[in-house]
Design a protein that fits this description.
274 residues; alpha/beta; Spore Coat Polysaccharide Biosynthesis Protein SpsA, Chain A
Length: 274
């Protein structure tokens, strides 16, 4: 039996959050789990619903609403790492994943197979139609990358989407946490880069862990039907691709020259209607 600390953050998604916790508890009985749920100032009764469940293995952390995803995960990981020696793994999850019952136990078992021991294992997701949505990331030339799903379990990934990622605690002790510089997104990509650059392998488990729909382009900064000013405002919002966060990510993982060029590319695309 392994001991796993599970970290997730939430904000005003009561049904998704409580549903996620319910599915995580369903059928995963072969290991010992402790859940750290960071609530970033929910006002829809999320905390009250979590407390009603009576789960003794859930540690609910009340936090400020300005944390967003990366800030919430940083807070949760920070708490979990205070007792790192108690756990064998840390599991990073998103609360919008509809997990398959018993899948986390299978994820842990897969991580213990002879050719995967000591590696980070990514649990890929599909959307409601069965199409691959989130998983591993393999960077190629420059900043272009490919998504790695359940059909490519032998591919060593560069990084990952942290919708469901199992990380051995020995690796977490080295990388310590996501980078607190990021506000919402890119923290998971950056964490994966640090893991793979440190010599640790990242693989995708050859079966889906659950359903998680991809974020739609419609209404986002990439929506070409919107006006230039609207798209730029959306890009600079916390759910978009804020300049400072994007430059920091590029500079850290691809170098200063690439950051200087690629950080302005999104604005050019917006101006030319791409």
């Amino acid at each position: 039996m392994s001991k796993i600390v599970v970290v997730m953050t939430c904000h005003n998604r009561r049904e998704k959050t409580t549903g996620c916790l319910e599915k995580l508890h369903e059928g995963n009985n072969n290991n010992e789990y402790h859940y750290i749920v960071v609530d970033a100032g929910s006002t829809d009764g999320t905390c009250e619903e979590i407390e009603k469940t009576g789960y003794r293995d859930v540690e609910l952390v009340h936090a400020e609403p300005t944390l967003f995803w990366n800030g919430g995960m940083y807070r949760g990981i920070e708490i979990g790492m205070k007792h790192a020696d108690m756990y064998d793994y840390m599991l990073l999850v998103n609360d919008d994943v509809d997990f398959i019952p018993g899948i986390i136990d299978r994820l842990v078992d897969y991580s213990k197979s002879p050719d995967r021991a000591g590696s980070v294992i990514v649990g890929a997701t599909c959307d409601t139609s069965g199409k691959f949505s989130y998983g591993g990331i393999l960077y190629g030339k420059g900043i272009s990358y490919s998504m790695i799903g359940v059909d490519s379990p032998s591919v060593k990934c560069t990084t990952f989407n942290a919708n469901c990622t199992l990380i051995p605690m020995e690796i977490m002790k080295r990388v310590k946490n996501v980078d607190s510089y990021y506000k919402h997104s890119m923290g998971d990509f950056d964490l994966g880069f640090r893991i793979s650059r440190g010599g640790n392998d990242i693989y995708v488990m050859p079966e889906y862990v659950g359903v998680c729909n991809d974020n739609p382009i419609e209404g986002s900064w990439q929506d070409r039907s919107l006006g230039i000013v609207k798209r730029i405002k959306l890009k600079e919002s916390f759910k978009g691709l804020p300049f400072k966060d994007w430059f920091h990510y590029l500079n850290r993982n691809f170098g200063f020259a690439t950051a200087c060029v690629r950080s302005i590319t999104p604005y050019i695309k917006i101006l030319v209607g791409k």
